Structure formats: structure tokens, C-alpha cells
Known about the structure:
38% of the residues lie in helices and 10% in strands. The protein contains 14 helices and eight strands. The strands form three sheets. A four-stranded parallel beta sheet has the order 6-5-7-8, sandwiched between helices. Strands 1-2 form a two-stranded antiparallel ribbon. Strands 3-4 form a two-stranded antiparallel ribbon. The longest helix has 13 residues. The chain is globular, with a radius of gyration of 24 Å. 25% of the residues are buried. It binds zinc ion.
Amino acid sequence: MIRARGIKIGDTVLVRRAGDVIPFVAGVLDASRRTGAERDIVPPTTCPSCQQPLSEQGNSRELFCVNVACPAQTVRRLIHWASRAAADIDAIGGVWIERLADAGILEHPSDFYHLTKERLLEFDRMGEVSATRMIESIDTSRQVGLRRALIGLAIPMASEGTAARLCRAGFGSVEEIADAGEVGLVAVDDIGPKVAASLIEHLNRLRPELQRLREAGVSLDVREEDLPPVVAAGAPLAGKTVVVTGAISDPRSGEKVPRPAFQRLCGKAGATIASSVSASTDLLITGADVGASKVTKAEKLGVEVVDQSEIWSQLFTAGITL
Ligand SMILES: [Zn+2]
């Protein structure tokens, strides 16, 4: 975009509102008002982290570092493995992952599963409570399962949707996907030859890592939550597209319920889950501490807004529980 619009450092640009949120840089506001002090924006030729040459890919000629041993990418991959959509190791944040990687004790996702509390306590500013929480969080993440492990492995071109479709197509483990071959993979809805080739290339490259994860007791097999929910008879939310917002808690115990778990209950009740409110949303389910913007948007679009207590009682009546 910088290239196409001839934008330089120091330019005054025209920014337009486009779509919903993201401002669109239309171009230089008035090129005749340039002072001559503007500087060209020169794209880098080497990776700032590993200094390897960059490769241009895609229609917009994006620059990629294709060095699989690139340190910056190693840290990002570890952070990605630990992220909520993947293994969800929520007690270890990005800063700690970086410190552990710098210390040389984290390189692959499987290395998380060999960390011990004693080893963590050797670090400055690491307390007993944090170390215990980190180890517990790592331990829980061993149940990651096929869909979230596929997301966590960050395979180029394979999206969260790809991971979900592979599970629904009947693959039972990540190794089965690695062994499926192109013919087996393109038979899955919406998986084309490029995505199939990327899955095959990267899962084969990752075979030693998959083996290490298995040996560390990490589940890479399909879980019930990876498959479409079985819709209960008399499902109260059948045919409805719903968005869940705010903090959700079980009214019987008062305990906090993770949003994905609640969404799954809504799925069992027949709902289709969406992430943001749009004209096709039927219901906005609100928990505690809801931001005003989602509710305002729902009201503007005429979407019904319902408190979680109403939905919980419908779920209990239909016998749908955690
Ligand atoms: Zn690099």
C-alpha cells in the first residue's frame, strides 16, 4: 500500500473511515506541500531478528522470514501455543515465555511440559505462588486435543476453521492428518491443494515435535468438544445465531464459566455461535461487566438482548448442563 500510494515518512496523509473500525489511508493529502524533508520508506531486505534474507509472498508482496530457526519466530510460536485458542496456558504470559526462551529452556511447545517448579523458582522475581500456578496451567493444557493443537502448531494457511473442519471430517489425531496425503486432505470441505500441501509439509517437519508432545503426555487426539455438538431434543435456541458477551457464571454455584464452555452449551441448545453482533444475529446474551458498545450495536440493529440468567434457566429446563 505504501508502494502503491507513494507515501513517505513525514507526509501528511488523508485517512478515511472505511468499513467498521480500521481507518483507511487513502494517500498523500497534498503532495505540493511536501518540504523535501520527507524520506522514502525502504522495506527491509533481511529479518531484524535472524538477519536471514526475506522472501516476498502473496498478492500484496508481503515480506516473510522463512527461517524455521528464527529466534523471534520461535518466541512467537511458543506464545501462540500457549494462547487461549490453542493450549491455553493462561498462567504464563508472553514476557515469561520470552525470558524462558532467552534462558534456553523453552524452544519447542513440548519444552513447556518439562518445566518444573524448582526450575522456575531459579528465576528472579518468580514467586512460589506464580510458579505453582504456571505448572498447574501447563498440566491442564495436556488435554489440548486435536483441534486446538492444530491451531497451536501455527501451520501456515491452516486457519482455526481448517482445524475445525479436519476434526469434523473424522480425523482422529494429528498423526492421521500428517499421514492422509493430499488426496485425503482435499477431500475435506474447503481444503484446497495449497492448504493440503502446507499441512503435509509442516506436519511432517513437526513429526519429531509431535512425538515429543506425545511422550510428555499431551493429547493430540480429537476431543468431544472438537466435534459439532449433538443438539438436544427440544433445543431452546434451535436455529438462532447468538453472540455471547461479558463474564459468564453458573447461577447454581456462582462459579465463573469460560466463555467457550458456555458457547458450547448454547450450541447443544441448537444455537449457532458468532463472535460479533451483526444484522444476522438473533440474540445477544450478556454476562456481567458488559461493554456498552456491543449492547448499543445490538439495539441499533434490533437484535434481542438477553441476560445470561434467562438462558441458563432455558438450558436447565432442557436438561443441558456443563
Ligand atoms: Zn528471522
